[in-house]
Write a structure and sequence with these properties.
The longest helix has 19 residues. The protein is globular, with a radius of gyration of 15 Å. The chain is built from 8 helices and no strands. With 171 residues, it is mostly helical.
Length: 171
């Protein structure tokens, strides 16, 4: 991740070496292509720059978090889009929007289930029962949108191994 960001981000002097490996890409089985995995981590870093504790970028001046976060979002989505999987693009775009809504509503406890359930849905794509998995995921997103809570997202996320670093970064 550091080498990719160092080549691409104008804020290269503000890069930090994270203590841990990417949090979400290893949960996706079968694995994402390398560019998709980098894209997923860039999107997470963008979200953390806006709403959490970034792992790879430490902006030196106030206000640079937004610029760096937007850059990470854009380049992450470009990498994901290049793979041509519209479901993944859509799921991650919804993730960014729903996550911002959760933060704005002061319900940060819903962030980890949202990120984990989105990762679950990405992992389920193309596998056996992918259509049913996508329906469950979309229903869980709709529950969040309509104010019914994040319990359906938690149920989807329960199928994945724990991600303690994600909880730390999103608090």
């Amino acid at each position: 991740m550091r080498a990719v960001l160092a080549d691409e981000v104008a804020l290269a002097g503000e890069l930090i070496e994270p203590e841990a490996a990417p949090l979400l890409a290893p949960l996706v089985v079968p694995p994402l292509e390398p560019d998709e995995a980098i894209g997923l981590d860039l999107i997470l870093e963008g979200f953390l720059l806006h709403h959490g504790r970034p792992r790879h970028v430490a902006p030196a001046a106030p206000g640079r978090e937004v610029l760096a976060g937007d850059y990470c979002y854009a380049h992450g989505l470009v990498r994901i889009a290049a793979a041509g999987d519209l479901f993944v693009v859509s799921a991650l775009a919804d993730l960014i929007a729903l996550g911002a809504g959760i933060v704005a509503a002061g319900e940060r406890e819903g962030l980890v289930p949202l990120w984990r359930a989105t990762t679950w849905a990405i992992a389920a794509r193309g596998g056996p029962g992918a259509g049913a998995a996508e329906e469950r995921f979309r229903a869980a997103q709709d529950a969040l949108r309509t104010g019914a809570g994040h319990r359906p997202l938690e149920e989807l996320a329960a199928a994945l191994p724990p991600t303690p670093g994600l909880e730390e970064a999103l608090t």
